[in-house]
Amino acid sequence: MNAALTTTGAEVLARGVTKRFGVRGQPVTVLDDVDLRIAPGEFVSVIGPSGCGKSTLLRIIAGLLDADEGSVAINGEAVPQAIRHKAMGLVPQTPALLPWRSVRDNVLLPTQVNTAANAGRNLLDVDELLTSFGLGKDLRKYPRQLSGGMQQRVAIARAFVFDPPVLLMDEPFSALDEITRDQQRLGLLDFWQSNRRSVMFITHSVPEAILLSDRVVLMAARPGRIAEITEIDLPRPRDESVFLSPQFREYEIRIREGLRRVMKNAQD
């Protein structure tokens, strides 16, 4: 994957983010005073037990949910302005492709929404972008004709069509089998290392988080908050050989121990 992207990453800054949901008529705090900064061009994975609020935090940053307290800024802009400027690309857990549109037309869809914001933008060549994702021969195919891994590549390509400085990924490989998942995350790693964007990546996989990230953020639940942050000081560029590194194993042990602690505390 080596599409010719030009935009550099942008800073993502969340301060004091708190979110509550009503459960049986009572407010439940899902996120409590969360501070998180993603530097321009940094890859940050967020990991934690189910219910810790990691996907909720991503949706607040993406503008899909409003925080009850706190703020989020993308390169100093409030989220609504960042959305208007199409500064963020979102890859959901499932590809969410429209079955009646071809691969090419699914990737073009964001360019046909809010067309007033397109003026003067650097829209990537869709055919070239899809070719860089290994889909150059599949432009006219429909989602039903693609494997799960190929569908997810289409969703990632769609998120990049506006050349956004920020990419938000919510467990994009969770529905894939392990072999396909390995292929997809190595492809994403190669793509990101060639074209640095600021990435927030939600995952339940500790090895995946270590392989991809500059930092791994561990969240605790009840209420959701940041418990630990681990700096991943492994040399780049990386490939699958990193799994054999003793340092990789040390990071894996440290993060798994942190997960056990937060899960035990949630049960106490």
From TrEMBL:
InterPro entries noted in UniProt: AAA+_ATPase, ABC_transporter-like_ATP-bd, ABC_transporter-like_CS, ABC_transporter_ATP-bind, P-loop_NTPase
SMART domains per UniProt: AAA
Pfam family, one: ABC_tran
Domain of life assignment: Bacteria
Gene Ontology molecular-function annotations: ATP binding; ATP hydrolysis activity
SUPFAM superfamilies noted in UniProt: P-loop containing nucleoside triphosphate hydrolases (SSF52540)
Keyword terms, alphabetized: ATP-binding, Nucleotide-binding, Transport
PANTHER family in UniProt: ALIPHATIC SULFONATES IMPORT ATP-BINDING PROTEIN SSUB, TAURINE IMPORT ATP-BINDING PROTEIN-RELATED
Protein name as it appears in the record: Pyrimidine ABC transporter, ATP-binding protein
Species of origin: Nocardioides simplex (Arthrobacter simplex)
